[in-house]
From TrEMBL:
Belongs to the acyl-CoA dehydrogenase family. This is Putative acyl-CoA dehydrogenase. Residues 49-141 form the Acyl-CoA oxidase/dehydrogenase middle domain. Keywords: FAD, Flavoprotein, Oxidoreductase. Pfam families: Acyl-CoA_dh_1 (PF00441), Acyl-CoA_dh_M (PF02770), Acyl-CoA_dh_N (PF02771). Residues 153-288 form the Acyl-CoA dehydrogenase/oxidase C-terminal domain.
Length: 288
């Protein structure tokens, strides 16, 4: 994730949802579900999406806040609702959907080819423009009993464990963007001369970049520590996972902001009109 985000946070986000969120959720299913849905995701035959957020629910995933409802119907379910900000939805072959079932939540595997599943117009975002997000509309979608991921009423646990993986991935992506902004700024400071010397020779920028170098190592260590705990068998490696997301994303925004200042006018443009020189940090600033 760090390496992908170093070059494009949009690509990192697509991978995050396809592999880390959808993939991790499906990996909690039965052998039959993993073979039917996880195998083609790993092989790249289909794209995966993960849908918990709604127009009125995102961080709050309590049953009363989730309006997407699954109603028992014979030996299956009828799923109705609307999910929002769903990455990969416009190209996904399968969406993992969190829905309310009575007083609890259940996770469902929803093929996008099922009758009643449609996607909305892609969102027009400030940043991460290559990461396409759109609503997923579920209009009386008929699902079989085999579509339940895990157990009925166990959806919140599936979602929270999956999102724990996601926090670590987002922390790593933040570090990737921060490192890219840092490296490009260092190169510029060495080559840009003003007031009788390179900008890198000025004490202000030396202090700023030294602090950021230390912050980068701390943020990277946090997400690696969380990942190591996860690999060691801890299903919820907190608080390191949450700390990694907090510090990684915050650092990306801070370094990108100062990178814009260091580059001056070139930091503000997408491309230079005179010769189409690409702005080196503008996209990082937007994406962070």
């Amino acid at each position: 994730m760090e390496e992908l985000a170093y070059y494009s946070n949009s690509v990192a986000a697509i991978y995050d949802v396809h592999c880390i969120l959808a993939g991790t959720a499906l990996d909690q299913g039965s052998d039959e579900q993993r073979q039917r849905w996880l195998r083609p995701i790993v092989d790249g035959e289909i794209v995966g999406a993960f849908a918990t957020s709604e127009p009125g629910a995102s961080s709050d995933l309590s049953p009363s806040a989730v309006s997407t409802v699954a109603t028992p119907d014979g030996d299956g379910w009828i799923l109705s609702g609307r999910k929002r900000w769903i990455t990969n939805s416009v190209v996904a072959g399968v969406v993992v959907v969190l829905a309310r079932t009575g007083d609890s939540l259940t996770t469902f595997i929803v093929p996008t080819s099922a009758p009643g599943v449609t996607t909305g117009t892609p969102d027009r975002k400030l940043g991460n423009r290559g990461q396409i997000t759109a609503d997923v509309i579920l209009d009386d979608v008929r699902l079989g009993a085999e579509s339940v991921l895990g157990r009925v009423g166990g959806g919140l646990r599936v979602a929270l464990q999956t999102l724990t993986y996601g926090r670590i991935g987002i922390g790593a992506a933040g570090v990737g963007m921060a490192q890219a902004a840092f490296d490009r700024t260092v190169t510029h400071l060495k080559s840009r001369h003003a007031f009788g010397g390179s900008l890198a020779s000025k004490q202000h920028w030396q202090f700023v970049m030294a602090d950021y170098a230390a912050d980068l190592e701390a943020a990277r260590s946090l997400y690696i520590k969380a990942a190591l705990r996860l690999d060691a068998g801890e299903r919820f490696p907190e608080p390191e996972a949450a700390m990694a997301k907090l510090r990684g994303t915050d650092l990306a925004a801070r370094i990108a902001r100062d990178a814009v200042q260091a580059f001056g006018g070139l930091g503000f443009v997408r491309s230079l009109g005179a010769d189409d020189t690409e702005g080196p940090v503008e996209a990082i600033y937007r994406d962070s």
